[in-house]
Every structure is written in C-alpha cells, then in structure tokens.
Design a protein that fits this description.
single chain, 398 residues, mainly alpha, 18 helices
C-alpha cells in the first residue's frame, strides 16, 4: 500500500499544471453540483436579482423587470423597472440561461438552476486556480491538498457554490489576477481585476491595494501603471453601464451605494471594532467558527511573511485592505442567516500566505497539534456541509 501511495504522489509531483488543475477542479465540481441549492424557495434575494436580468435578456433581449417589480433589489429608474445588481454577475450567467433558460416558473420567478450552476462552475474553477497559485510556492501534491482544504473548508462551498452570490465569480477573477501577478503578467492581472469589479465593484480595493503594494516592493511603476490601466477598462465599462442603464455615471450608483456611504460616515469606532471582532469570532457568522482550520495559520504568519515572495505579500495586503475598508461600508455578517461571505474574496487572495504560514507551523508542530489541525479540517468541512442543508424559505418567491 505504501508503494502505491508513493507512486501516486510521484506521478502527481511530475504532472503538468493543467493535469493537477483538473485533479482539483473535477472532484470539487462534482461535490458542488451534488450539494448546490436546487429549490427556488431557498434562494436569497441577491441571487434572484442577479439571475433575473440574465434570464430576461437571453429570452427577450431586454432588461425589463416589470413582472418582478415587487421583489427586493428591483428598482424604478426614470419609469423603467430594473435590477440594481452590478452587471458582471448577470453577464457571466447569461450563457447557461441561453442554453437552459426556458424552464418553467417556480412560484414568482423562473428557474434559478442556470444561475446556481454558473456559481458552481466559477467557484470550482476558483479552487482550481488557487491550486495553481499554490503550485508557485510549493510542491504539486501539497498544492493539491491545500486547494482541496480551501474548497471544502471555507464557505466557498456553502455560499459561493450554493447559489448565485457574486462571490464565486469575483473570487475566480481575483484568483486569476493573483496567478497573473505571480508571473509578472500585469496587463492580464489588471484585466482579471477589472472583470472582478464588474461583478463586485468593491473588489477594486483588492486590485488597487495589490498593485500599489507590489509596485512598492519591486520599486517599479510597471505593476501600478499596467495593472491599473487594464483594470480601469473594467471600471470604465461599469461606469458606462451604470450611466446608460441606471442613469448614474458613477461606479457605485445610489441604487445600491447609498447605504454604504451612510454607514461609512456614521459608524462609530467602537462599532467598527465590533464588526472586526465579529468577522473572526461571532458564533453565527465568523471565519473561525465555520472554518476553524484557519486558526492554525496564525502561529507561522510572521515567519511566512518574511520568507514569502513579493506577489504573495502584495496579494495579502490587497485582501486585508479590501476587508478593512469593506467593514466600514457594510455589516460584517452580510445579511446571511449564518456563516460568513464578505471575507471570501480576502481569503482567496490570502490563500498563498496562509498556506505558507500553516506549512511553517506544521513542520515544527508536535504530533498532537498536527492531529488537532486535521480534526479542525474535518470540523470545517462538516460545518460547511451542515450549513448547506439548513433550510431557509424566501417568502418573496412563493
């Protein structure tokens, strides 16, 4: 048996990147497809509002939401009834609605299955790309294991891949941007970041933080200029869409930005600290409750930081900057019934640093602490699995 395991590890270690990508992507895709939310009654309002424009445009060639005017996030703009969701999430959902969009209504809305399947595909691809970034800093075998833990032990499984939140597609493009930066492909990184901000505009903070940090570390303007100009293409498309469709020539129109501005202006320092602590420790919504394996990445952070490549540190800075500012703009619990979702983008771009931190600690840990880590991995996966099956009914789609 030992020789079989050794030979298997040897084959994986020698396999090209595309093969080990598939070794991660295909099993994760299968798990996500089996556990995704198939019932309209359990879809959140964000997922429905994101999917409806994709369904409407592929079936009728317009964005008229008049028949859904009573649903949340459906707004009136100069006499037109529209969804206020950023355009990117609907655009990436259109291909599957073109193919499968003529399914019958379930309650007040069309089938959400094409939208959910889109979320599954992008979320599984995110895990595969995270694996590719880990291959840049460790062996293919360890990169495969690290990506699987990420895919099954974080709410990428139970949130991003469960229904059409914007997180899965945004995570995918941020991971692509991080991979591109690791190869010094700054234009490609900027284009990926531009796609991410079309899906979740606030992820522009990741792009800005990463580019500026990497440029400073390398003492070069190339990452800032090339990456920034490329990402600005996505920003420009977003502004034009908002202007033409939502009648607001800004990246964040009032239809979904007013509450962010108001919170940033009125949140007290004490409330901000409470949100920060809640993100890590709240019993219903925190990272360490639903992904306790992440606790074991803390002890080795200092050594991992000093020994990691510049792109790893820059990506981490971009992710942390994004999260710190995000907590000023929105509540830490994300309007969910349980679990965490806003930190998902941060965890995606932090994955290489957290992996190195874990590896630094694990190499010197006792047998007991190593067992504790693997117990925490099982606990994390179990928490995500259980979270998927806790029933939630959305009365707006009855």
């Amino acid at each position: 048996m030992q020789s079989v395991v050794t030979r298997s590890r040897g084959r994986i270690a020698q396999a090209p990147a595309w093969q080990t990508f598939l070794l991660v992507f295909l099993p994760i895709l299968g798990v996500y497809l089996l556990t995704m939310d198939r019932a309209n009654l359990e879809q959140g309002v964000d997922a429905i509002a994101a999917a409806l424009p994709a369904w409407r445009f592929t079936q009728f060639g317009d964005l008229d939401m008049a028949q859904f005017s009573e649903l949340p996030w459906i707004i009136e703009v100069n006499g037109r009834i529209l969804s206020n969701r950023p355009p990117g999430i609907s655009w990436v959902t259109m291909p599957l609605y073109w193919v499968f969009g003529r399914q019958s209504f379930t309650g007040a809305v069309p089938s959400m299955l094409p939208g959910t399947a889109t979320a599954v595909l992008f979320s599984a691809a995110t895990v595969g790309v995270v694996h590719l970034t880990l291959r840049r800093i460790t062996t293919p075998v360890l990169a495969l294991g690290g990506a699987l833990v990420f895919g099954l032990g974080t709410s990428t499984w139970s949130i991003s891949a469960n229904e059409l939140w914007a997180h899965g597609p945004a995570q995918f493009f941020l991971a692509l941007g991080m991979l591109a930066i690791s190869y010094n492909r700054f234009v490609a990184a900027g284009l990926a970041h531009g796609a991410a901000l079309l899906i979740r505009p606030v992820t522009a903070l990741v792009a800005a933080g990463t580019g500026l940090a990497y440029g400073w570390m390398q003492r070069s303007w190339r990452p800032v200029v090339l990456g920034g100009l490329s990402a600005a293409l996505g920003l420009g498309v977003l502004v034009v869409y908002n202007g033409l469709v939502l009648d607001s020539w800004t990246p964040v129109p009032a239809s979904y930005g007013e509450s962010f501005v108001e919170r940033a202006q009125n949140q007290s320092p004490l409330a901000y600290v409470g949100d920060l602590l809640g993100m890590f420790l709240h019993p219903k919504y925190s990272i360490f409750v639903f992904s306790p394996f992440l606790l074991f990445t803390i002890p080795g952070l200092k050594r991992a930081w000093t020994g990691s490549p510049a792109w790893v540190r820059a990506s981490a800075i971009g992710g942390v900057a994004y999260m710190l500012i995000h907590l000023r703009l929105n509540r830490f619990w994300g309007g969910a019934e349980f679990n965490y979702r806003y930190p998902l983008e941060m965890l995606t771009v932090l994955a290489p640093l957290l992996f190195l931190s874990w590896h630094t600690w694990y190499d010197n840990a006792s047998a007991g602490w190593r067992r504790a880590f693997w117990y925490s991995v099982v606990a994390s996966g179990t928490a995500q699995f259980v979270a998927i099956w806790i029933e939630f009914t959305n009365p707006t789609v009855l």
